[in-house]
Structure formats: structure tokens, C-alpha cells
Amino acid sequence: MAEEIDPQSAREAVAWLTQLMSEEADGEDKDGWQRWLAASPENVRAWQHISRFSSQFSQLNGEAAHRSLSTVANPQRRRLLRCAVGLGLIGAVGAGTLPWRSWQADYRTAIGEQQRITLSDGTDLLLNTQTAVNVSLPQISLLQGEMLVASPRSGMPLQVSLPQGSVQAHNSRFSLRLRDDYSELAVFHGQLSVTPLDGGRTTLNAGYGGRLNLSGFREVGRISGEPGWQQGMLYADNMRLDDFLTELARYRRGVIRCGQQVAGLRLSGAFPLADTDRIIASLPGTLPVQVSSLSKYFISIS
Fold first, then answer.
1. Rounded to the nearest 10 degrees, what angle do helices 7-21 and 27-39 cross at?
2. 161 near 192, Cβ under 8 Å?
3. For residue 119, which of 123, 195, 199, 297 is within the disulfide window of CB 3.0 to 4.6 Å?
């Protein structure tokens, strides 16, 4: 059996590959990639593994052949996806969601983008960063990411399909977010009828949140309010630094690595997502940390 690739190095290898294939790649990026390779044998192993799947990926002659991974030709894109899956970089979300389904979704947002949509039945959707949905009213399928939903007062109940089950709503306002192995639910007005894949039905009332996974549904208690991202803010309340950086990374390209020695530091505040570089640069002013970078897309907090 082949030795497993370090997950962190694997994620960074795909991020480097994405950047080096883009039209924005420059000499600074190539220098940063070389420093990243030299930093760890695990990085070398991860890069060698992913570059095997196409000689184009390993040549790195400085000329971008594609705008991004999302626009490469379909056969090559599939090869790259299989490579990423083999590395454990792009896996199923919950119960078997295939990553390339989101590329052909009816509506999707890019990194750092939000999109508001009003459907023909009056349903309002606000899609957060890196979100993909399919619409076939009265059903919506959340394929990736996070969205805020306001279902109409009249007409048929709205049903939203999730990897671990579904929810049904009528005259309700709620949010849904797909995590690695569960879906996160929160109700701000009205109620949700939650149906796990294994059957049964539970009601989630306004002011409460819950988690839906393959084992079923459980309520997690009261929620503090609607998500800050709809107002372009990231709110932290005594939040661990590693969790904060993981959340921040959803809104920017590249990789943010958090050292274990500072991961447990806590911070609070309201951070405007329109300028993630400024958020990162401000961290040493509030916490005993240092910020370093291999390039603008690869940040290390230690």
C-alpha cells in the first residue's frame, strides 16, 4: 500500500498548482513555489504525486496555459480531479457529493463572492462564497457552500436537498451550510421540517440551530443571530485563532497556515471581509504572532 500523503502538504500542492496554472502567475509565485518545495520532504512528495497526472503540471515553464482549474478542458479537468481525490484534497461532501457537480450548477459563486437570487416562486437566496445550488422548484439542491434562504408565504412549501437529507420550509428564513461531514442549519424566522436520509422528521424552530449528518439530526441549541457574512463581516467571539483563519480562508485565494504553537490563541472582533489582507496584517497588533509569506497566496501565522 502506498504511503499516505500529508494532508496539509496535499492541500497546499493543489493550491500551488492552481496558482501556477493561472494567468496571474509570475516570477514571485514560482520562487515561492520553489521555497515551499524546499521547506519539507512532504511537500515534495505531494507535488510529485499530483504532477504525475500531467506533464504540463510538472513543467512549469512560466506560461499559463489555463485561466484556472475551473476552466481547463473537461478531460484534463477530470484527470486533475481524480488526482486531487487520490490525495484526499477534494472529497465527497457528506454523503457522496461529487465535486465537479458544482461546476455545472444553476447558480454558483466564486471565492469571496456573494450573489442574491430571487426565484420565480418568490424564494430569496443569498449565496455566500464558494457556493453552488441547483434549482428545480419547489426543490433546491445545495451542492457546496452556504446560503441564506427566505421562503415565500404562499405557494407550495420549499424543499432543500442536502447530502444528508432534506429540509422543508414555508414562510421561513434560515441558513444552511455544508461542512465536511454534516450540514449546519439555523432558523431565524418560522420553522424547518428536517428529514434525515434514514427517515423520521424533526421540527427546528426559530432561534435554534442544528446539525444533520448520516446518523440523523440533532439540535445544538440557541443561535445568537443571523450570520455576519451577509453584511460582509466576519464576527469572532473568543474564537480560536486556527478556527478564525480557517473561516477567513474561505474568502480569499491561497493557503493560510496556522502554527500549532499559536493555534489556541483567542480573539474577538468584527472584521470586514472586503479586505482579507488587512485582517491578516492586523493580527500581530492584537496577538503575539508573526505573519510571513512565501507569496501573496501562501501565508503562515506563527
1. 160
2. no
3. 123
For the chain, domains (ranges, CATH) are 7-87 (no CATH), 105-222 (2.60.120.1440), 232-301 (3.55.50.30)
> In whole angstroms, what separates CA 96 from the centre of its chain?
16
Mean pLDDT of 41-65: 57
CA distance 230 to 245: 19
C-alpha cell at 293: 509569506
Question: What is the C-alpha to C-alpha distance for residues 126 and 238, in angstroms, rounded to an integer?
Answer: 27
Does residue 44 carry a pLDDT above 90? no
pLDDT confidence tier of residue 41, bands split at 50, 70 and 90: confident
Work out the angle between the directed axes of helices 27-39 and 41-51 (0-180°, nearest 10).
Answer: 120
Distance, CA of 186 to CA of 148 (rounded, Å):
9
Output the CA–CA distances (angstroms, integers) from residue 163 to 50, 199, 213, 219, in the order listed.
28, 14, 8, 18
DSSP character at residue 253:
S
Please state, in angstroms and rounded to a whole number, the distance separating the CA atoms of residues 296 and 275. Answer: 13
| Cβ proximity of 300 and 293 under 8 Å | yes
164 in Cβ contact with 182 (< 8 Å): yes
Q: Which set of grid coordinates corresponds to residue 76?
A: 484534463
- The mean pLDDT of the chain is 82
| pLDDT tens, position by position, 124-170 | 999 999 999 999 999 999 999 999 999 988 888 999 999 999 999 99
Distance of CA 208 to the CA centre of its chain: 23
| DSSP state at residue 202 | E
Q: How far is CA 277 from CA 240, 252, 253, 293, in A?
A: 19, 9, 11, 12
CB 176, CB 158: distance < 8 Å: no
